[in-house]
Design brief:
Length: 152
C-alpha cells in the first residue's frame, strides 16, 4: 500500500476537497485495511478495498453532527480568505469541487480511477442507472465549469 499511498491520497482529496481531511481519510483507510488484512482473500484487491473504505469514510464523516455545525461571526471581522497556490490546485480540481457530492464521487471513481459503471455502483451502494445519470450530469457540469474558467 505504500506504493499506492500518493494515488489514494489524491483520490481522497478528490472526494472531500481538503488535503487535511484527505490525510485523515487515508489514515482511516489504512487502519481499517490493516485490521482487515488477515480476512482478505486476494491481496491484489487491497487497493479496491481501500478505495471503498475511503468513499464510505467520507460519507460517514460528512454525516457527523459537528461537520454540519457552523460558527457565526456576526458583528466580527472575518479573516480574509487565503487563496491556495496555483501549483496546489488545478482548474480541474476546482471544477470538481463545484459539483454536487454524488456527482463528484461518481466522476472521480469512473474517470480518475477508471472503475466500470458496475464497480462504481457497488462502491457507492447505488444502482448502475444512478451512476450513469450522475456521470452524465457531472461531466456536463464539469465541462461548463472548465469553459467558464478558461474565459476568465
Amino acid at each position: 500500500m505504500a506504493a499506492r499511498q500518493t494515488h489514494l491520497r489524491r483520490v481522497a482529496y478528490a472526494l472531500c476537497g481538503d488535503w487535511h481531511r484527505a490525510d485523515d481519510l487515508l489514515q482511516t483507510a489504512f487502519v481499517k485495511l490493516y485490521v482487515a488484512w488477515p480476512r482478505l482473500r486476494d491481496p491484489a484487491a487491497a487497493e479496491g478495498y481501500a478505495r471503498r473504505i475511503l468513499v464510505r469514510a467520507n460519507v460517514d464523516e460528512s454525516r457527523r453532527p459537528w461537520r454540519r455545525e457552523r460558527t457565526s461571526l456576526d458583528g466580527h471581522d472575518q479573516a480574509a480568505a487565503s487563496e491556495p497556490a496555483y501549483e496546489e490546485r488545478s482548474a480541474l480540481v476546482d471544477a470538481l469541487q463545484q459539483l454536487p457530492t454524488m456527482q463528484r464521487k461518481v466522476v472521480v471513481l469512473r474517470h480518475m480511477i477508471g472503475l466500470s459503471v458496475a464497480e462504481a455502483a457497488d462502491e457507492l451502494g447505488i444502482s448502475e442507472g444512478t451512476v450513469k445519470s450522475h456521470t452524465s450530469r457531472g461531466l456536463t457540469a464539469l465541462e461548463k465549469a472548465l469553459l467558464a474558467a478558461d474565459k476568465h
